[in-house]
Amino acid sequence: QVQLVESGGGLVQAGGSLRLSCAASGRAFTTIVMGWFRQAPGKEREFVAALNRAGSTTSYADSVKGRFTISRDNAKNTVYLQMNSLKPEDTAVYYCAARSAGWISFIPINYDYWGQGTQVTVSS
Fold first, then answer.
1. How far apart are CA 34 and CA 36, in angstroms?
2. Which residues pair with 32 in a beta bridge?
3. Strand bridging mode 68-73 / 92-99
4. Taking the CA of residue 102 as centre, how many other CA atoms within 13 Å lie in the half-sphere pointing to its CB?
5. Mean pLDDT score, 43-55
6. Across 64-89, average pLDDT
């Protein structure tokens, strides 16, 4: 079992920045692939970014590429999502997710564990 707790969401103006954190516990952090997803009202949950176990390989949705950066600190059992140049369309609940399999996936159902979500609201 893996427990995930997100933090760092909030309200920010367009063009601003936020950094989300996700603290993991319950299993060796280096054995799990980490990802971030988001879900806006009335929309499907969508992939944002993911990072392999070592932190050496990343993947991003086209909509956030060049603006968001995913990283992990294996010593702190934490994954981060640095979000810059935020846009109103980035408004959503952001979820941290973990999967036991060794490779990155873009598909929510492939992730085994989920955090409770943190709200990000970007005003225009």
1. 7
2. none
3. unpaired
4. 1
5. 95
6. 96
